[in-house]
Specification:
The chain is an alpha/beta fold. The strands form four sheets. A six-stranded parallel sheet has the order 3-2-4-5-7-6. It has four domains: 52 residues, no CATH class; 170 residues, Rossmann fold, CATH 3.40.50.970; 157 residues, 3-Layer(aba) Sandwich (Rossmann fold); 232 residues, 3-Layer(aba) Sandwich (Rossmann fold). It starts with a helix and ends with a helix. Bound molecules: thiamine diphosphate and magnesium ion. Thiamine diphosphate binds next to helix 18, helix 20 and helix 21.
């Protein structure tokens, strides 16, 4: 009633004063009266809202014409959630708590569902920094990439509804590659929840699987510290993504730093340390029995072996084993070692297939590689597996001794036991492994040296192979999903210490650019190289090139090299249509529309080169890695280069040939397939 009356006066008073014809004095009087009434209305509304929210146990902040306090107040949260009697907004408390968890960067995309949180980031003045992408999916991939590159928790931020939905692929990437990520997601105002409101999505159900270890909606300010801490604790402790949902009104609510010591109030802290888990002695003894019983040992190295390189090599030497790596484990050991057969699996090397096909003992270290048919056949090899997550043990191959433990400590314990035995491994097996490795390296050179199947296009193996000679010793490599993953696995020799990042288990296209960006933002002083197909570039890489163009001038070292393998085809899947189904490539589903990648990069004021002749390959890499800005190399490549898995049964190859046989113009690809097969056998 008061409000209505006041509003009526606001409308009527200026008219009355005008009628009195008081001139300029009247105008000023009218304005003063009008603003006084408006302020009174606003104050009255705030008071009413406070009463309403207090009745549901929550105080909502009223900002506006006269109440600017919420906009200027800084956060006051202390690490242990104690001390200051002052109050602050939940949004500021979230940002402060992120800082307490050591978060330096949050990858986010705006939406009104998180406006209070965005304002809190603004008030935080860049600590932590908010980094935007061009799509929420990219922010989640950046968070996953940040976790992959740094070992820290990656954090992404999105609005309710559509923004939340967009996060999923990146969160699953983290889940499947076992990386800690926290997603902070807005939700519609809690008074509207359950009404089918604008952008209302059942976020618990949406994130139930991706963030299955912890999804929580913050319904009251008092809940915030422990809910956020639980999201971080759980992400770190289970190496998975977790999700914190914060309705819009809760973001705006006031909260206190003090957790009352009373019933239903839950204090929380950010203290957390990682354990060193070592298996039981008896299990280590049994593992040594198994590992020394055979005469043809092999070691499969996964990403879990990072940090245990020295111990790993000692165990390999004491066993006289041959080595192979999962795709995620490729960077762990120097692949130029004479007994390192390279990556295993469908995209792996002939030497790895030989090693896995002939070994009688297998030690798996920190790998959960999914290519089960490339492991030793059932009954062929007695197997020991080390993994920090007991739930991974025995999930991909039959295991006799499972050692749940930290790779470094467990390997050190195995090393000590093996050394105590004092038995020297036989040399014959090692010599056979080294022979197979030399054989693969010859095949690799032959394949890289081959001309492409048609004129005017490049052999993609040659393009990627040439990177090895140019790759800086401090680079970071980020690889997309497509034929480039195969060429990375087989042809890129990473300098020791250089890490390559992939979507190893979700195998999601579109992973390379956001991971590379996360890596670059973490260390702007080191060069980054991205390998991506044209399909992946069109899926999201072109958009994220805009992010590169936006940021590169802030980087200490501006080198950010993007190789686009331009083949006009979703070629990995075209080859799968042939190999798995015996079908011809289906042009309608497989064609990638032509696009001028290099010219587009130039439009963004980046460096670029389009190459389609073999003698341009090495100069293009050199130019890209010497450029004073990000550089895109558009390599026009042959879509007919087969993605032949190593040591395939004849039936598989026949199926590929049957597919090609049904394709007009399938001849050159079939010729290349025959040649690859001959190289492998001969
Ligand atoms: C998000 C997503 N969609 C689809 C796929 C299936 N897929 C795997 S590789 C691939 C083709 C990639 O094409 P492109 O990026 O052009 O690389 P190319 O294999 O042609 O070198 C597709 C469609 C996938 N892995 N991820
Ligand atoms: Mg392609």
């Amino acid at each position: 009633m008061f409000v209505l009356l006041a509003l009526a006066l606001v409308a009527v008073v200026p008219v009355l004063l005008d009628a009195l014809a008081l001139g300029p004095v009247g105008t000023v009087l009218a304005q003063v009266l009008r603003w006084t009434l408006l302020v009174a209305v606003h104050r009255r509304r705030c008071a009413v809202r406070r009463v309403l929210h207090a009745s549901v146990g929550r105080e909502r902040v009223c900002t506006g014409m006269t109440d600017r306090s919420a906009d200027t107040r800084g956060p006051h949260t202390s690490p242990a959630g104690t001390a200051s009697p002052d109050t602050t907004l939940v949004s500021d408390a979230i940002v402060a708590r992120l800082r307490d968890w050591g978060v330096r960067r949050v990858f986010g995309y705006a939406g009104d569902g998180i406006d209070p949180l965005l304002a809190a980031f603004r008030r935080a003045g860049g600590d932590p920094a908010l980094v935007t992408a061009r799509h929420e999916e990219m922010t989640a991939f950046m968070a996953s990439g940040h976790a992959k590159v740094t070992g820290e928790v990656g954090v992404c931020l999105s609005t309710q509804g559509p923004g939340a939905i967009h996060l999923l692929a990146g969160l699953y990437d983290a889940k499947l590659d076992r990386k800690p990520v926290v997603a902070i997601v807005g939700q519609v105002v809690s008074t509207a929840l359950g009404s089918g409101y604008l952008q209302e999505v059942d976020l618990h159900t949406l994130f139930k699987d991706a963030c299955g270890q912890y999804v929580q909606t913050v319904v009251s300010p008092e809940q915030l510290p422990h809910a956020l801490d639980n999201a971080f604790r759980t992400a770190l402790d289970t190496a998975t993504p977790t999700c914190l949902i914060v309705p819009h009104d809760v973001q705006q609510a006031r909260t206190s730093d003090v957790t009352p010591h009373e019933h239903a109030m839950v204090p929380s802290s950010t203290a957390l340390s990682r354990p060193h888990v070592v298996p039981r002695r008896a299990d280590l003894d049994r593992a040594v029995e198994v590992l020394t019983a055979g005469s043809r040992p092999a070691v499969l190295v996964g990403q879990g072996a990072y940090g245990a390189e020295a111990e790993l090599l000692e165990v390999v030497e004491l066993l006289g084993a041959g080595v192979t790596a999962s795709l995620l484990g490729k960077p762990v050991l120097d692949e130029s070692l004479p007994f390192h057969s390279g990556v295993m699996g469908h995209l792996g090397t002939t030497a790895s297939a030989e090693l896995m096909g002939r070994c009688d003992t297998l030690l798996v270290v920190g790998s959960n590689d999914p290519w089960t048919e490339f492991y030793p056949a059932p009954g062929q090899a007695r197997t020991v597996q080390i993994d920090i997550a007991g739930r991974n043990i025995g999930t991909k191959a039959p295991v006799e001794v499972g050692l749940t433990g930290d790779a470094r400590d467990t390997l050190a314990a195995l090393r000590d036991r093996l050394a105590d035995r004092g038995t020297a491994p036989g040399r014959r097996w090692r010599a056979e492994v080294e022979g197979a490795v030399r054989g693969w390296r010859e095949v690799r050179e032959q394949r890289a040296a081959e001309p492409a199947g048609s004129a005017g296009v490049l052999n993609p193996q040659a393009v990627v192979h040439a990177l090895s000679a140019e790759l800086p010793a401090d680079a970071l490599v980020s690889v997309d999903v497509g034929s480039c993953t195969y060429w990375y696995a087989r042809f890129v020799a990473l300098p020791p210490g250089v890490r390559g990042h992939v979507s190893g288990t979700l195998a999601s296209m579109g992973c390379a650019m956001p991971t590379a960006l996360a890596g670059k933002l973490d260390r702007t002083d080191r060069p980054v190289v991205v390998l991506a197909g044209d399909g992946a570039m069109q899926m999201n890489g072109l958009s994220e090139l805009i992010t590169v163009a936006r940021h590169w001038r802030e980087w200490e070292d501006p080198r950010f090299v993007v190789l686009v393998l331009h083949n006009g085809d979703l070629s990995e899947v075209s080859w799968e249509q042939r190999e798995v189904e015996g079908d011809p490539r289906y042009p309608t589903s497989q064609e990638v529309p032509a696009f001028p990648y290099a010219r587009y990069a130039e439009l963004l004021d980046l460096g670029a080169a389009r190459i389609d002749s073999a003698d341009a390959i090495a100069p293009a890499w050199r130019a890209a890695l010497a450029a004073d800005r990000p550089f895109l190399v558009e390599a026009v490549i042959d879509p007919d280069t087969p993605l032949l898995a190593p040591a395939q049964p004849a039936g598989k190859v026949e199926q590929m040939l049957a597919g090609l046989d049904q394709e007009p113009g399938g001849g050159p690809a079939a010729d290349q397939l025959h040649r690859q097969r001959d190289q492998e056998v001969g």
